[in-house]
Amino acid sequence: MPELPEVEALARFLTERAVGRTVARVDVSAISVLKTYDPPVTSLGGLEIASATRHGKFLDLDVSGLHMVIHLARAGWLRWKESQPAVPPRPGKGPLALRLHLDDGSGFDLTEAGTKKGLAVYVVRTPEEVPGIARLGPEPLAPEFTPDALAAILQRAGRAQVKGVLRDQSVVAGIGNAYSDEVLHAARLSPFKPASGLSPEEVLRLHAAIKELLEDAVKRSVGLAAGDLKAEKKVGLRVHGRTGEACPVCGDTVAEVSFADRSLQYCPTCQTGGQKLADRRLSKLLR
């Protein structure tokens, strides 16, 4: 799933390629991708793209005062094309969900792999009309996201596991499954540690890890072509998606905890005092 660094890079990529250009037309291949109908997506035709920005993991194109807001979800992606096909796509054909044409012939496709569809496109008058944006928590790279602000967030979360708190978009915007694993590894914290149980020193470590990891990921991603962002993200991850590999810090084997629809990775030596966390999926099978 694209998270804050990748969506930030996409926003900057579109700032360079699309801002100042006029939308020629929008082809919808999968009607389910549209989450709003007033104004209609066809109303974007003939309007100029004024800016491309980000809210958490949402991409926001300001099109002459209307906003085309995109959430790529787990398996969605934006694919830039210097030359779009003139013939409209056949509805329901392949992974293509929506195609946007610009006045110079370029544009982008929104695609989604797999059968579980989460890719979402909203056309709204203000970004806050999108429910997911309206309930977003603070941006972790904003100046006001201080150690004290993080400490207050963790205290409000109570006994909730710190991994889940970091992934909750209404608590902190933009951090998903992958970067929460990376942040907790860098901060040397168990993903299952209660949020309100962190010591002041642990809060400082967590805050520093959030800022440093996200800022570094943004720096590595910005300037890359949209098609190269996924590979760059994977290369930069130290524990997420690396079950069975050696931890780059201590050399221990990266372990995994599996859930119904996702998994987390961590280093036992760096994060849990050498202890292996119970795999929730396996525990249920053994009952």
UniProtKB/TrEMBL annotation:
Residues 2-109 form the Formamidopyrimidine-DNA glycosylase catalytic domain. It catalyses: Hydrolysis of DNA containing ring-opened 7-methylguanine residues, releasing 2,6-diamino-4-hydroxy-5-(N-methyl)formamidopyrimidine; 2'-deoxyribonucleotide-(2'-deoxyribose 5'-phosphate)-2'-deoxyribonucleotide-DNA = a 3'-end 2'-deoxyribonucleotide-(2,3-dehydro-2,3-deoxyribose 5'-phosphate)-DNA + a 5'-end 5'-phospho-2'-deoxyribonucleoside-DNA + H(+). Residues 238-272 form the FPG-type domain. Its cofactor is Zn(2+). Gene3D superfamilies: 1.10.8.50, MutM-like, N-terminal. CDD domains: BaFpgNei_N_1. Transmembrane segments: none annotated. It holds the Pfam family H2TH. InterPro entries: DNA_glyclase_Znf_dom_DNA_BS (IPR015887), FPG_cat (IPR012319), FPG_N (IPR035937), H2TH_FPG (IPR015886), Ribosomal_uS13-like_H2TH (IPR010979), Znf_DNA_glyclase/AP_lyase (IPR000214), Znf_FPG/IleRS (IPR010663). Keywords: DNA damage, DNA repair, DNA-binding, Glycosidase, Hydrolase, Lyase, Metal-binding, Multifunctional enzyme, Zinc, Zinc-finger. Belongs to the FPG family. This is Fpg/Nei family DNA glycosylase. It comes from Motilibacter deserti.
